[in-house]
UniProtKB/TrEMBL annotation, chain A:
GO terms for molecular function: ATP binding; ATP hydrolysis activity. Belongs to the ABC transporter superfamily. This is Ribose transport system ATP-binding protein. SUPFAM superfamilies: P-loop containing nucleoside triphosphate hydrolases. GO terms for cellular component: plasma membrane. It is a peripheral membrane protein. It comes from Roseibium marinum. Residues 7-242, 255-500 form the ABC transporter domain. PROSITE patterns: ABC_TRANSPORTER_1 (PS00211), ABC_TRANSPORTER_2 (PS50893). It is found in: Cell membrane. Keywords: ATP-binding, Cell membrane, Membrane, Nucleotide-binding, Repeat, Sugar transport, Translocase, Transport. PANTHER family: CARBOHYDRATE TRANSPORT ATP-BINDING PROTEIN MG119-RELATED (PTHR43790), GALACTOFURANOSE TRANSPORTER ATP-BINDING PROTEIN YTFR (PTHR43790:SF9). InterPro entries: AAA+_ATPase, ABC_carbohydrate_import_ATPase, ABC_transporter-like_ATP-bd, ABC_transporter-like_CS, P-loop_NTPase.
TrEMBL record, chains C, D:
InterPro entries: ABC_transp_permease. It is found in: Cell membrane. One of its GO terms (cellular component) is plasma membrane. The keyword Transmembrane applies. The keyword Ubl conjugation does not apply. One of its GO terms (molecular function) is transmembrane transporter activity. It is a multi-pass membrane protein. It comes from the Bacteria. The chain crosses the membrane at residues 32-52, 58-77, 84-102, 108-130, 137-157, 177-198, 227-248, 283-302. Keywords: Cell membrane, Membrane, Transmembrane, Transmembrane helix. This is Monosaccharide ABC transporter membrane protein (CUT2 family).
Length: 506, 312, 333, 333
């Protein structure tokens, strides 16, 4: 590794109306390094990356590449300068095949007149092969959100770039894919490509990156060699304090209750899952682990009647439960937090307050069915404060929030209805450490107050840290359960990948 | 042939555009009556749309049926030159009505004289409001007979009554709501407006509503008639309407087509035998128009007329 | 000191006042209001007849009934749909009610039946959209053709003269209460009622959710198909209401009424800020859009602009106004 | 043995064959083709005149020129746009070329100028959409009105008679090569050319990317505004071409030509599988949509169906056909 600075940002500022997203930021990227960016939600990380990729124009400040001052007017210019970007929000063309999506930039600059689909699909298969098996001729609209994330990564890897930006690429990936990605990143870095890596997972930063820069409130705070610091230093710089407890205290032995909140028996769906049986007990947080595409989301969506034709029996608090629709499910206090926040979690162009109240606007309506706006806003403001949401005004559209803050809106939306049973699918996707700890604390409080909680997460440390018990799903079946001391990444991964072959865990 | 009589199965077609328009109804009744007298079959054809390509397609499809003759209302004159000529070459005689294709080889053209209507209307207006008053027109640019009714009246006024002042000229395109809006504005801008000439009845319905609402003293005259404007004539809200003799148009239209298809029944004093053209050549037949007033309005109730008749 | 005291005494009112003005300025519709005002001032200078009560009344009358259809279309657009059949369905409302009346049915009963028929047509379209899964565009296009056909079939293409309608029925189309035409009062009632409901009720909030992101709405427990079915039906029902008022106003039922109305109505809504992608729009804005279109047309007629120039000027003003509005909205954002 | 050998000898051909049939069956358009075939068979039984050369030619001639506009509209729809001005712009093409010709300009030069003018109009719309940021709908609505106004202004509302057009010019509209009208040949050339380009060229793939997700396309370095500008301009240019062919065919220029054409053209594209949201559609499908509409209209005329029933039947067939097609597509998926 050399110390050549390839990309240099100086004194860069960017505002959105009254919101000052970047305030005089300085930043240096060296050749062949993997440089992590850390910062709370809304600190300005994505904004800075969008400026570097030419998607946004800075209000002031300079960008130089190889010592040359440059003006990056559009992503096309950025591409010419050798900048590749995996976006925080997936941006793929749904009506187009995976192969074409991956090579969109190549097609764009290609001099050849005709498309060669055959060659494209072969090349795409090669690129994808390393990451995951997806047929390159499928349309992107038919892929699950995590597979789309992988396509998005594959797309950036094919670019002939010198600077590769990865904005929270692993938020929807499991350990397995993340490890593959890190391998690829290190190989690229070895070839002299510089990588900016944004993540809220400290482990990833400390395992894979060379340097780390910390942002807070639109300012660059510090840049350090990873070798010289410990995670607490970074967190401290990010939030201005040390977060002493990343995870709340778990249920103690004597708090354990045998009261079952949700009892699911032999739940099956035609193709997606089979004979799923489990219970959520009072006071506990139950985890659901598995590989991408194992069917975790499907099981949960099936339970609350969002998708699929499900057979099997369920009971809630001892009473038989038969739901006809998700509306029915909500009215019984069972809610689902979606993993695809942009696709089906939030209303991007609607005000924050209207988003938060979407599950039950009746709650702030008067006797005539009229929404009382100040009540709506007051209640939304309370939830926003509880989740430490960073926003301008509650009437702003959700699209003006940073990715992590959008996720908090999605969570607030769910908490709005005072649920009895919550299914959370990747609840802390893109959420910073501080807020994550807060969300975990809220979940624990809810669980203690008798709310049933089930968490799906691809981040194993989170599952292990938060849950009292973790079920593992493999190819649509529950392949095992771990709890207590047995909750280790190895055990979970084993169950998730080996599936049917049940190793002795106890 | 046995004189003025059709062979069994000999068919005549009447082809129009916007075939749902009520204007065609009495025309086709006349056409049918004449055909019945000669023992001929008839078909009412055309396109429901205001679309020249569709009308030409329907025209050509009619030709597949090999009719003896066709009474045609060509939506535009020039596009029909080639199809008409082709039809005649393949043995179908064509007569035009209400709109012409003069450069084609059609054998006859029957219509009401729009110039005469305009002149009559101008004289009537002057008779009612004097020869130095303000008047306005509504129009429907692009439709030739409506255009003619308007432009002819304006130039007749300019030539013969130079003191008549044209104060408003608005396109309302047969839309009663647009006519309401336009008339209301004209009335606003011209408090002394004395008369209004409208080349069709749809706009007249809207115009009369505006005049009544503004409680203005304006003489309204229009061409064609609908049940609603007929009622307004009876009530004295509309002064007068000029209505083409549609029945005669259809009846004479059939006669001309039939004769074109049976040129052997007469022998004009000319060179047709040596030169080889159809002796039935009538450049222009005027079917005349009726003047509808309060007094005779009852005779123009289309619903009463259609009672007991088959519309198709 | 006193100042300070009074300041602290009325913090709520003050901030409410300031925020009211700020909210006014921030409102989507402010630009349009400004543009319309500019047109008004220009026209008042250009023509002494413009700013008269009679002219204003005529101008409002010219779009009031169509305005009721605009309300329905706006709500439908917000939910993510579109309806090309509004003109035909309005005509059908006239024809059905007129035909029934001529066949001896009481005009009020005939009107009720006619509105029910239109509602049924809306439900029919709603069925094809939500159950069969077709796009609003193609379904409403087919229904536009079918409804026009029924109009022709029911009347033989001839307008139905309905001069025998009883005066108390004609009153809804031609009467006045004080100096104000009943038509305008009905129009205002519909507009204010739906504007209020759209802004405030939970029912209509669901219309916004559905149009903004149908999947997210479904994932919020909203029966989005029902919502779309409802807005589709509502739009046709309002066409029915408009048709009845037209019938009372013109004293006739015209089978060819309303050809091309759909473009006008959609244009009004879009000018007023409704998105063709769904999820946004206001009744107030859409009505302003209709006002803008109507003021321009009326002004051109009032100024006796040549027929051949009118279309050119009208189109240009439309384009300019929309561009200015867009610029203002963007600038404020 | 021989069999086996020959089988193994041509493994590629075999699998290519099988996959060809499978691909045919999987193709979006198969359902439409089937529906049209059913209509054809039914019509051939119902009317002896249907399956005649003259009738077939008349049917194709009825949509061939409009088909060129359908091509432009489909491409524009794929890129996420829409154009309501196609009818007016086609009329304008006729009027401009006709006017120039009557003023002594060579008809070929006049046609070139006229197509250039139409292209300019497209660029004008493209500017308002991509630079000012207005929606296609409203921009093209304004241009529709303006272009119609220019037509009226340039002709005084009267058609221009152009019977003096030289025969070699009229040839493109009225001539035949062998038994096939030149118009149909031009139409086929345009359709096949653009269908091929849309499926295979890198340039047109960008149109799909832009329409499917403009942001994603822009992030990949595609200048999406240029793409939209291009498709908007292309659509108007093709209207220009269509207008010239119409002029040669009719020997006149009609200022009122093409009123309502936009709905027909958009309907054809949508029936053929184009999405109003952008990102999908094919030329082949859109032309099938145009064929379907045309066959239905022609058939009703040929069968002497009462005018009063025609619209009802036409709308119902349209709705049924689209529903069946939708069902087939969904079932295959
Ligand atoms: N389009 C926009 N309009 C208004 N404000 C915006 C917009 N985009 C970003 N912001 C604001 O800019 C600030 C920085 O946002 P940014 O997306 O850069 O945060 P981030 O560091 O990437 O956070 P996260 O970890 O949540 O992704 C936030 O306060 C956000 O609300
Ligand atoms: N819309 C869809 N169409 C077809 N197949 C789907 C669809 N959504 C999901 N699948 C498939 O269903 C299976 C289960 O997916 P699911 O999303 O439930 O997995 P998961 O365990 O939640 O993992 P992740 O969400 O991390 O991908 C996968 O094989 C996936 O590809
Ligand atoms: Mg971010
Ligand atoms: Mg999942």
């Amino acid at each position: 590794m050399t110390d050549d600075v390839i990309l240099k940002i100086s004194n860069l500022s960017k505002s959105f109306g009254p919101v000052r997203a970047l305030k005089g930021v300085d930043f240096e990227l060296r050749k062949g390094e993997i440089h992590a960016l850390a910062g709370e939600n809304g600190a300005g990380k994505s904004t800075l990356m969008n400026v570097i990729d030419g998607i946004l124009q800075p209000d002031s400040g300079e960008i130089s590449i190889d010592g040359q001052r440059v003006k990056i007017g559009s992503p096309a210019v950025a591409q010419k300068l050798g900048i590749g970007f995996v976006h925080q929000e997936i941006a793929l063309c749904p009506d187009v095949s995976v192969a074409e999506n991956i090579f969109m930039a190549t097609t764009n600059t290609s001099r050849s007149f005709l498309m060669n689909y055959h060659a494209l699909e072969k090349k795409a298969a090669a690129v994808l092969g390393e990451l995951v098996t997806i047929d390159p001729s499928t349309l992107v609209r038919d892929l699950s959100i995590s597979h789309q994330q992988l396509v998005e990564i594959a797309k950036a890897l094919t670019l002939d770039c010198r600077v590769l930006i990865l904005d929270e690429p692993t938020a929807a990936l499991t350990e397995k894919e993340a490890q593959i990605l890190f391998r690829i990143m290190r190989r690229l870095a070895g070839k002299g490509i510089s990588i900016i890596y944004i993540s809220h997972r400290m482990v990833e930063i400390f395992d894979n990156c060379d340097r780390v820069s910390v942002f807070r409130d639109g300012c660059h705070i510090t840049t350090r060699n990873v070798a010289d610091v410990v995670p607490d230093d970074v967190v401290n710089a990010m939030v201005g304090r040390v977060i002493d407890e990343l995870y709340p205290r778990k249920q103690s032995e004597d708090e354990r209750s045998e009261d079952v909140i949700l009892d699911v028996r032999n739940l099956s769906e035609r193709t997606r899952f089979k004979d799923v049986t489990f219970q959520i007990r009072k006071g506990e947080i139950l985890g659901l682990a598995g590989l991408i595409g194992a069917g975790r989301s499907e099981i949960v969506k099936g339970i609350c009647r969002l998708e699929g034709k499900v057979s099997g029996e369920m009971s809630l608090n001892g009473l038989p439960l038969s739901l006809t629709s998700y509306k029915d499910s909500i009215s019984k206090g069972i809610v689902y937090l979606s993993e695809d926040r942009k696709g089906d979690g939030i209303f991007l162009e609607m005000p924050i307050s209207a988003n938060v109240s979407a599950l039950k606007p009746e709650q702030v309506a008067n006797a005539l069915g009229l929404i009382v706006r100040y009540k709506e806003e007051a209640q939304a403001a309370r939830l926003a404060a509880r989740l430490n949401l960073k926003f301008g005004a509650l009437t702003d559209p959700v699209s003006s929030l940073s990715g992590g803050n959008q996720q908090k809106v999605a969570i607030a939306k769910m908490l709005w209805v005072d649920p009895k049973l919550i299914f959370l699918d990747e609840p802390t996707r893109g959420v910073d450490v501080g807020a994550k700890a807060e969300i975990h604390r809220i979940l624990r409080t809810l669980a203690a107050s008798g709310v049933g909680i089930l968490v799906i997460s691809s981040e194993l440390p989170e599952l292990i840290g938060v849950c009292d018990r973790v079920l593992v799903v493999c190819e649509g079946r529950i392949s095992g359960e771990v709890s207590g001391k047995d909750m280790s990444e190895e055990n979970i991964m084993h169950l998730a990948s080996v599936g049917g072959v049940r190793p002795s865990l106890h | 042939a046995n004189g003025l009589q059709c062979e069994p199965g000999e068919t005549y077609i009447m082809n129009v555009m916007v075939s749902g328009h009520p204007y065609w109804v009495p025309v086709y009744q006349g056409f049918k009556q004449a055909a019945a007298a000669f023992g001929c079959e008839t078909i009412f054809s055309g396109t429901p749309d205001y679309d020249i390509t569709k009308q030409i397609a329907s025209f050509e499809q009619d030709m597949v049926k090999q009719p003896a003759g066709m009474l045609l209302h060509p939506m535009q004159s020039d596009p029909f030159i080639e199809p008409i000529n082709r039809a005649i070459d393949s043995g179908t005689q064509i007569v035009t009505f209400a709109a012409d294709s003069p450069k084609s080889n059609r054998t006859a053209y029957i219509t009401s004289d729009n110039l005469a209507e305009a002149k009559f209307a101008a004289e009537e207006i002057v008779k009612q409001v004097g020869d130095s008053a303000e008047y306005a027109v509504l129009e429907n640019p692009g439709q030739s007979n409506h255009d003619l009714r308007v432009t002819a009246l304006i130039s007749y006024m300019e030539e013969n009554y130079p003191d008549m002042k044209l104060v408003g000229r608005q396109a309302t395109n047969q839309d009663s709501n647009a006519a309401y809006r336009a008339t209301a504005s004209i009335l606003q801008a011209n408090p002394n407006l004395a008369a209004l000439w409208i080349p069709e009845a749809g706009s007249a319905e809207g115009a009369v509503a505006a005049v009544l609402e503004a409680e203005a003293e304006v003489l309204i005259m229009h061409a064609d008639v609908t049940p609603t404007t007929l009622e307004h004539i009876k009530a004295g809200n509309i002064h007068m309407a000029l209505n083409p003799n549609q029945g005669i148009q259809g009846f004479m239209g059939f006669m001309a087509t039939f004769l074109a298809a049976h040129p052997d029944v007469f022998d004009p004093f000319n060179d047709y035998k040596v030169s080889g053209y159809n002796p039935m050549q009538v450049p222009y037949i005027d079917n005349g128009f009726a003047v509808i007033t309060k007094e005779n309005a009852d005779s123009f109730d289309l619903n009463a007329y259609m009672e007991g008749r088959d519309p198709s | 000191m006193e100042d300070a005291v009074s300041l602290t005494d009325t913090p709520h009112t003050r901030s409410a006042d300031a925020s009211f003005i700020r909210r006014m300025l921030r409102m989507r519709e402010t630009g349009l209001v400004a543009i319309i005002l500019v047109l008004f001032v220009a026209m008042s200078i250009a023509s002494p007849y413009f700013l008269t009560w009679v002219n204003m009344r005529a101008m409002v009358m010219a779009f009031a009934v169509e305005g009721i259809v605009v309300v329905g279309m706006t709500i439908l657009l917000i939910s993510g749909g579109i309806d090309l059949s509004v003109g035909s369905v309005t005509a059908l409302a006239m024809v059905v009610a007129g035909w029934l009346f001529l066949n001896g049915v009481d005009p009020w009963v005939a009107s009720a039946i006619s509105i029910a028929v239109c509602t049924g047509i809306g439900a029919f379209m709603g069925f094809f959209v939500t159950r069969v899964g077709l796009h609003h565009f193609i379904v409403s296009l087919a229904v536009m053709v079918i409804a026009r056909g029924v109009c022709l079939l029911g009347t033989g293409g001839r307008p139905l003269g309905l001069y025998t309608l009883p005066p108390e029925f004609k009153f809804i189309g031609q009467g006045t209460i004080g100096p104000v035409p009943v038509v305008i009062l009905i129009f205002l009632a519909v507009v204010i009622g739906f504007d209020f409901m759209l802004r405030r009720t939970t029912l209509f909030r669901k219309v916004f959710y559905t149009g903004s992101n149908e999947k997210a709405a479904a994932y919020s427990g909203i029966r989005t198909k029902r919502v779309i079915f409802f807005t589709t039906t509502l739009c046709s029902a309002l066409c029915g209401v408009a048709g009845i008022i037209y019938m009372a106003r013109f004293g006739s039922a015209q089978p060819t009424f309303g050809i091309g109305m759909e473009l006008n109505v959609i244009a009004a809504a879009v000018i007023g800020g409704a998105s063709l992608k769904g999820g946004s729009g206001t009744i107030f804005g859409a009505i302003l859009g209709a006002v803008l279109l109507s003021v321009v047309s009326s002004s051109l007629a009032l100024l006796d602009v040549s027929v051949y120039w009118q279309d050119i000027i009208r189109g240009s003003i439309l384009l300019t106004a929309v561009s200015i509005d867009h610029y203002l909205v963007k600038k404020r954002a």
